Structure formats: structure tokens, C-alpha cells
Amino acid sequence: MINELFVIGCAIFFAFILYWGCRYLPAERWQIIASFPMKKNINGSWSGINITYYGFLIASAQVIAVSVFCILMGALSVPLSDLAMLASGLLFLCIIASKVLARVVEKKQNTFTVGGATFVGIVAAPFIVLMFNALVDNPIPVLPVMAALAVAYSIGEGLGRLACLSFGCCYGQPLSKIHPFLARCLKNVSISFDGMTKKVSYEADLEGVPVVPVQAMTAILYVFIGLLGVYLFLNEKYDGALILSIIVTQGWRFFSEMLRADYRGQGKITAYQWMSIIAMLFAIVLSANIPQALQNKPDLLKGLMQLWNPAWLILIQVLWLTVFFYLGRSRVTHSTIAIDIRLDMI
Known about the structure:
The protein is built from twelve helices and three strands, in the order αββαααααααααααβ. Helix 2 runs antiparallel to helix 5, helix 5 packs parallel to helix 9 and helix 9 packs antiparallel against helix 10. Helix content is 62%, strand content 5%. It has one domain (53-333). It has a three-stranded antiparallel sheet. By secondary structure, it is mostly helical. The N and C termini lie far apart (61 Å).
């Protein structure tokens, strides 16, 4: 019963976040969280750098995803120190890949690709686990690790798509450009972005134009599948959790590319779509060829208790701050700040 209560509780919590994010984040005020003065201008104003809600939301989604991974693996009595090393190494690789692959595929320096990072993470993860097992006395079974990673990824990327609503990236096609039947179906749930500094505005001139709510659709689908994967994992269905999470998320990524209007690379089938296909095939082959090692039944309470470890609390704070400042600094906007005395308060 505790497994069901945990999943239902998470579903209610995430539903509130998704509802709030899909309703409010496309507005102009939810793009820049802060501006810091850096250099004083001749006229007395300051040139500043902008810190975005994109970074805040991505960092928060990453922390939640890592926490889910920690809970699931902790439920199998995997030590926190091992989890920290695995998760940190994989996250570092994916963050670097998100920038490198975006530069290679999209030919842009100041952007990131979740699709590319995901592909690298899926392919690299089992080999990282195998290398890690060669260095420790108590090896970690590969299939449960991959299942936990896939489930955590699904939830993390689902919540992370709220960052795209804030920044206005990964935007869908205008309803006027898609099939009339699909446009009618999406009319009442379409999204319109406000603000000229949103990517959808300065890149595609679609400010205020109803577009396909790709980010919201992705967020809802991924979080739902992730929670279903959590339930399967806690009931020892590791192969089911892995296959479900990867097939649905990567299958949707392939299809949703057709609904997007932002540049995704050349070709009718983009590089990211090819990555999705390869990732799905890789997951199927992996699940079929790696035996499901015998484990004690997952103990959810044991996994939850790991989150109260002081070392873990420090780790996730460092992780959040690192991702926040790495991805949160806006490289495509700048600010001019005027600082004055409030005469009415003297």
C-alpha cells in the first residue's frame, strides 16, 4: 500500500506544478529571475547579466530526478556513496553533451539539447556502471540501475520542459500551419508566448501566436510515464520500467519533432530523431540481453530514508547551484540597470 500512496502523492504534487507552469510560465515576467550589474556605463547606468528561470527550473528538475534515482536504488540497499558517484559522473557527461551536440547539430554556440544529452546518457550509462563495478567489491546490477535511470530521466525531463515554457524554446508550430483537424483539437490548449526576449519571438517572430503546446504535452506525458515506471520498479518489474520509459519518451520525441517549429537540423528525419530510434533499439537489446539479477524486494522506506543523509543534502545543493549557474546565465540577452535613491524614503 505504501508504494501506491507514494506514487499518488507524487502525482498530486507534480500535477500542481505542471498546471501552474503551463498556465503562467509562457508570460513575459517568468523569463528573467534576476539581473546583476557588472560594468558601469558612461551615463551612470550599469550593464548587467541576466539569470533565467530556465536555469532555476532545469536545476530543480535535475535535483528531483537525481532524488528519484536515489530513492529507487536506495530501496535496493545500494549505498549512497556509490549512487552519488554514478549520478554525478553521468550528469556531468550529459550536461557537457547537451552543449557539444547542439553546436554540432544546430550550429549554435549558445544553446543546449536535451535530446542529445539523453542519447549520450542512455548509451553511456550501462558502460559506466560496468566500469564502476570493476572498481568496487559489491557490484551494482545493471538492469535495475538502467531502469531507475530511465524512470528518473522521464520525470526529470518532464519537469524540465517547464523551463522551455519559461524561455520560449522548443516551441511548436503555429496552429495555422498544421492540419485543420489537429488545429481544432488543440485550439483550447494552445500556448501563446509573451515577450520579445522569448526565443519563440526573436527567432521565429511568433510572439502572441497560438502554437502547438509541445512543451506542455511532453511534460505531462513524461511525468505520467515516469510515475508509472516508479510503480513498476517498486514492484520488481525492472525490465518493464526500463522499456516503458525509454520507448514512450523516445517515441514521443521522434513524433513531437514533427510538431515543432524551431530549427532541429537538416533532413526530413533529424539527427535527434535518429538518436531517439537508436536509443529505443538500444534499450530493447539491453533489456533482452542483461539478466534481471535477483534482488530483495524494493523497500521504499529504506530508499526515502537515504534522503535524510546530511552528505546527500549537501550534494544536491551543490548540484542545484552548479546546474543553476551553468544553464541559468543568459547568453542571448543582456540588461541595462539604473540604480537610484528613493527620495521618499530619506
